[in-house]
Design brief:
The complex is a heterodimer of chains A (250) and B (315). With 250 residues, chain A is an all-alpha fold. Chain A is built from 13 helices and no strands. Chain A is 80% helix and 0% strand. In chain A, helix 5 packs parallel to helix 9 and helix 9 crosses helix 10. Chain B folds into two domains: 220 residues, 3-Layer(aba) Sandwich (Rossmann fold), CATH 3.40.50.300; 69 residues, 2-Layer Sandwich (Alpha-Beta Plaits). Chain B is elongated, with a radius of gyration of 25 Å. The chains are: A mainly alpha (250), B alpha/beta (315).
């Protein structure tokens, strides 16, 4: 456990005490802001009755942040250490593979959540200038952030896996972007597929990230969505662990 | 301390390390010498447990590297090739981070970091960012990292590569000071380094250990006795006769140099040192002696001889 905290502190420091970290935060803030602008412009033309948070996820930018942000945040984790050789010094100390994976994933996810904080600012603006009291309703905001956290965990763990598989950061970013887009396309397929009883459709429909996020944005926590994201995350982290172990396979 | 048994490593179709076996006793400083691509780094990576061997076994301090990795990692301080560090961290912060990773407690890691900072002469730079340090200091940070948890075995992969002569000297002095407390395994392709620091040399080439002995023994074995060069001013026939009469001299060769001096190259029988006998001869005859040196086969000659393709059966 001590090793985990040491590693976590170091990973967090390398996110928050680096230029790269703030570039990522700035870029995410920009995307959140853009998404807000688009939302406000849309509302101006076409008034709506749903809570503002619900509209938020449906803008294009939300998914762009997820698809672009996760690869960029995670690309450094393993690939950089491998390229610079510090992976060798790390793995020759008595640390377990699990501790390394857990610390890196936790750090990346924490950083990801911090970079979502500007969204709070947008919600505050809405609250201040409109009659939308629901914008800062604790349940709704909690739901939104829970959704962001769970979906983020899926994409971040995917990014961790890609980083562990690659030798360079660029490679890692490309792999996790491609895998992320594939997952996104699957979600899109699930959303647009006609509803019927075929098992294929049923299987694909579990990947319907849009409806899952929609529920979260309304403040409704669906246990199916929670189980789906957690199990997907653990699956990717498990693969990540195996990739680290594969180094010791003969 | 180290027992390597029939260790082999294959990458794809290439055999990087081919069935090597050697042991290193506690407290020894052993040099792993070989040209680039001889398999030194691969061997060290396998010893440190970073890479698995394709076959064979490595035991460190009685623990198997493959199956008791944690126990082994606790006992070794490993500095990989090119000494990778986190350039954005400060020296003390980095060492403390490493000490914590290696399982030292909070107080213990503070104490040990202070000790290694002094031991490695990092006192002046301990609050500077590693990326801004000179290469010599970086190398010392790597060394301090390898030492911080008081390991029994220290494995250093090319610790002096890329340093200027002054820095090399200080790093060497540091490593020499480790003798006695730690077992040290150093890889290098710089010959004088091994001669100066190591009690024993393993010469690797083409993935095999070709020779393993003390530098002195290797020299004796290779030369079959050392050669002495003497420059003596004497009438040539008298000199030749005197040399013939010297019991200890096995072979000799005389050639004139400037003035009255003759240059004699003498080889003693069974490796004995001829210098006292030559001096006495010159003194008894009243001849002038202006040079008397023993030209040893340097480790360099041995190295070239051993690693020359063709002189050894490499398959």
């Amino acid at each position: 456990m001590r090793v985990f905290w040491t590693l976590l502190r170091r990973e967090l420091a390398s996110f928050f005490l680096s230029f790269q970290g703030y570039v990522i935060i700035a870029a995410m803030t920009l995307l959140v802001g853009l998404s807000f602008v688009v939302l406000v412009a849309g509302v101006g033309n076409d008034p709506f009755t749903e809570p503002v948070t619900e509209m938020f996820y449906s803008t294009f930018y939300f998914w762009l942040i997820l698809l672009l942000g996760a690869p960029v945040i995670t690309m450094r984790l393993f690939a950089h250490e491998k390229a610079s050789g510090t992976f060798e010094t790390l793995m020759t100390t008595p640390v377990g593979d699990l501790q390394v994976v857990a610390a890196k994933f936790t750090a990346a996810l924490s950083f990801y959540m911090v970079s979502w904080l500007p969204l709070m600012g947008c919600l505050l603006v809405v609250r201040h200038f409109t009659s939308q009291t629901a914008a800062l309703d604790p349940g709704t905001v909690g739901g939104v952030y829970l959704g962001i956290l769970l979906l983020g965990a899926v994409f971040i763990s995917l990014g961790c896996l890609a980083s562990a598989m690659s030798q360079t950061q660029v490679m890692s970013a490309i792999i996790s972007f491609v895998l992320g887009v594939s997952l996104f396309s699957l979600a899109y397929l699930a959303k647009s597929a006609p509803v019927n009883d075929h098992w294929q459709t049923q299987a694909i429909s579990t990947f319907n990230l849009f409806d899952q996020m929609h529920d979260f944005a309304r403040g409704a926590v669906d246990s199916r969505a929670v189980v789906f994201s957690l199990s997907t995350t653990f699956f990717f982290l498990f693969l990540n662990l195996r990739v680290l172990e594969s180094r010791r396979w003969k | 301390m180290i027992e390597v048994n029939h260790l082999t490593k294959r990458y794809g179709g290439r055999t990087a390390v081919n069935d090597i076996s050697f042991t290193v006793a506690r407290g020894e400083i052993v040099g792993l010498l070989g040209p680039n691509g001889a398999g030194k780094s691969t061997t060290m990576r396998m010893l440190s447990g970073f890479l698995p061997g394709t076959s064979g076994s490595v035991r460190i301090g009685g623990f198997d590297v493959a199956h008791e990795a944690d126990a082994v990692r606790r006992r070794i301080g490993y500095m990989p090739e090119n000494n990778p560090l986190h350039p954005e961290m400060r020296v003390r912060e980095y060492l403390k981070f490493r000490a914590r990773l290696k399982g030292l407690g909070w107080r213990e890691s503070r104490r040990r970091v202070q000790v290694v900072i002094e031991q490695c002469g990092l006192g002046d730079v301990c609050s500077r960012v590693i990326g801004q340090l000179s290469k010599g200091y970086k190398q010392r940070v790597g060394l301090a990292d390898a030492l911080v948890h008081e390991p029994e075995l220290i494995i250093l992969d090319e610790p002096t590569i890329g340093l200027d002569p002054q820095q090399i000297r200080s790093v060497r002095a540091l490593i020499k000071n480790l003798a006695g407390h730690h077992t040290v395994l150093i890889s290098t392709h710089i010959l004088p380094e091994v001669e100066m620091m190591c009690g024993r040399v393993l010469i690797m080439f083409g993935g095999k250990v070709l020779a393993s002995d003390t530098p002195e023994n290797l020299q004796r074995r290779m030369s079959g006795g050392s050669q002495v060069i003497a420059e003596i001013a004497a009438p040539e026939p008298d000199l030749r006769q005197a040399l013939d009469q010297l019991m200890e001299v096995e072979r000799w060769d005389v050639s004139p140099t400037d003035g009255a001096f003759f240059r004699c190259a003498l080889t003693g029988s069974n490796g004995s040192d001829l210098r006292p006998a030559i001096y006495q001869m010159a003194w008894r005859q009243g001849w002038m002696l202006r040079e008397l040196t023993r030209s040893r086969y340097s480790l360099e000659d041995i190295y070239v001889q051993v690693t020359q393709p063709g002189t050894e059966d490499l398959e």
